[in-house]
Amino acid sequence: MRIVAQAVSVVLFVMVWVSALLGDTDPFRNLAPTWIYVIFWLGVPALSVLLGNVWRGLSPWRALADLFVWLRELGGGEARPLAEYPERLGRWPGAVVLFAFAAMELAYSDPSSPRALAFATAVYTYVALFGMAAFGRDAWTRHGEGFAVYFGLLARIAPLDARDGRIRLRWPLTGLAGKDTTPGAVAFAGVMLGTVLFDGYSRTTTWQDLMARLEGPYVVSNPTVAELLVTLASLGGLLTGVILIAVAYQAACAVARWTVNSPRSLVPDFVLSLVPIAFVYVVAHYATLFLLQGQYTVPLLSDPLGRGWNLFGTAHVQPDLTLISPNTTWYVQFAALVTGHVAGLAIAHDRAVTLFSDRRDALRSQYAMLGLMVLYTVGGLWVLSRG
Fold this sequence. Notes:
Elements: H1 2-22, H2 31-51, H3 55-58, H4 60-74, H5 92-106, H6 114-135, H7 137-143, H8 146-155, E1 160-163, E2 166-169, H9 185-201, H10 205-215, H11 223-260, H12 267-270, H13 275-293, H14 297-302, H15 326-355, H16 359-386
Antiparallel strand pairs: 1-2
């Protein structure tokens, strides 16, 4: 089953990349933008939360690396990494990669350009395969392959877990129990939350007015400068969102440490409580996009290059854009945010009870975490209400 899934993933990967490289430059007639930004970026997280770490079997980059190792061993050789992964780097490379993807989507002037996506996909493929060759498939997947790290963390929410070659049932969220001492763990969580938070804020009239004032003097006289200023401002906004999330979390952990007089930092102990919040931010901000724009995948699969083909007889399928109403969207957003933050607080409380033998210390340590979750909830709802 794994081999079949990997073969299909590679075929789809090649089809999407060829569509981006050679297909119609109109993003609405080309499969690549919808596939990358909707099916891949939003669909795989949902699958991961429901079914576990499916990305290990669906990743085309892991499939290509597995194929190379199999061919090398078939020829009598031995596939060994060129170097040992530096543990001090932790998830920092993955955080940088994930931030770069968010910057492509949210800061670049034409993120849906098929040609730009073809170039970005080629660069990412080179980095992913080089990282696996240099440090080994498992090491790079755990630390440097940003999407694999992201989907792997979300998979720890799932009620299914694969261990010792068997699929096991577990209570949802229990995969997030314990601490995470991996370097860069807070930075990665900050990227997961901060980039989505900025995406919501960038749709507000406040940000749009700011961008209009920034580029206004140059739109006619020097459009290149206007585009560069907006891009740089968006990059700054993205980075600010990531920093605010990370600083708020570390400040809450510092307060919690002070309230219980802990001899060490509590940052590694509660960082996994941010994972369900990251997922519900995705649900709150992109559920409508996934349900509506995702329907266009059906006709686009029959005509991936926008050449008027009808390979599977679905080219004329008309999506239903009334599938979800604005009121329903708001209720879904509100319910998702509240549920996710409650889940995050429950994970943090569970860790506190394990960490502190004194019940009063466990309770006091959670006052700051409760304040953090309320801050994240109110901030998320405010951004959604202003969008």
